[in-house]
Design goal:
About 75% of the residues lie in helices and about 5% in strands. It is an all-alpha fold. It has a two-stranded antiparallel ribbon with strand order 1-2. Strand 1 and strand 2 form a beta hairpin.
């Protein structure tokens, strides 16, 4: 009964305010539901996403790195493992957020019919969007912390302050990709269409300068690659990790701010069209 009274109180508090039809001020309840599910059934799946970037770091950083030797980055000579480490951190944040906001959201939307039940309460579509995107961001953020912890144990961190900034940057990256991921998923009609996500992520991972410098590409290709979201993420995380603080960071953050705002707008609009007709 106390839960019902609380919901009524919140609904009355939001009544008549701007956006009250789509936002009840309770996105945390959606994230809390995901946390409870994690503790009960999907914890192993959640943890598995942390392993992938670590395996890439060991296989490429020390395997290929044994043949490559050292890399010169911003005038500094570093090991190959240290060079690819920030890129793998950005990729980990992206993968954790994008897969949670696509495959998991699609199942909840089309099979579990979870959002229909949520929107039958005082929750609005913006609550659902923020809650799910925030949870996906949290997943990417946790992966970033775990990865940085392993990297620190391997002695690859340039500084503690840089590591903290890089984790914060990874959180921004995860938020942006989660926003776009859920927006795309709201238009998907089948699991087969979701395979296109993997189809797009794989070449972006391979050609965004994750494992080698962009300088090996012709200039026209570098222009195209620099426009890719993963490339922007890699540059942001790498600059933060190495404390290369300049105005270019503001450009990267602005890029992801546009992704976040656009993703939230289209996700909220689509959920409203689907479930609140």
């Amino acid at each position: 009964m106390s839960f019902i009274n609380a919901a009524i109180t919140l609904a009355e508090r939001r009544s008549g305010k701007f956006g009250s039809s789509i936002f009840a001020g309770r996105p945390g309840t959606v994230a809390e539901r995901n946390l409870r599910t994690l503790r009960s059934s999907s914890g192993l799946t959640f943890a598995a996403g942390f392993v992938e970037p670590v395996l890439f770091l060991i296989a490429f950083g020390y395997g290929v790195g044994g043949m490559v030797g050292t890399i010169t980055d911003h005038g500094k000579t570093i090991s190959y493992a240290a060079y690819i480490m920030p890129a793998l951190l950005a990729t980990s944040a992206m993968n954790g957020a994008i897969f949670d906001s696509t495959w998991n959201v699609y199942f909840k939307m089309q099979f579990a019919k979870l959002y229909q039940g949520m929107l039958a309460t005082s929750l609005g579509t913006l609550d659902v969007a923020l809650g799910e995107i925030g949870w996906a961001m949290f997943r990417g953020f946790v992966y970033a912390i775990g990865f940085v912890t392993v990297v620190g144990a391997l002695g690859l961190l340039p500084s503690f302050g840089g590591a903290l900034l890089a984790i914060a940057a990874a959180g921004i990256v995860a938020f942006a990709f989660a926003s776009i991921g859920m927006g795309i998923t709201s238009y998907v009609k089948s699991f087969q269409q979701l395979d296109m996500v993997t189809f797009l992520l794989l070449p972006m991972f391979l050609f965004s300068g994750t494992l080698f410098p962009l300088s090996i590409f012709p200039e026209w290709a570098q222009v195209l690659i620099n426009a890719l979201p993963l490339r922007q993420a890699i540059d942001l995380v790498r600059d933060c990790m190495n404390l290369n603080l300049s105005w270019s960071l503001l450009g990267h953050v602005s890029y992801f701010a546009v992704m976040i705002i656009g993703g939230l707008f289209f996700t909220t609009r689509r959920l409203t069209a689907l479930f609140l007709r």
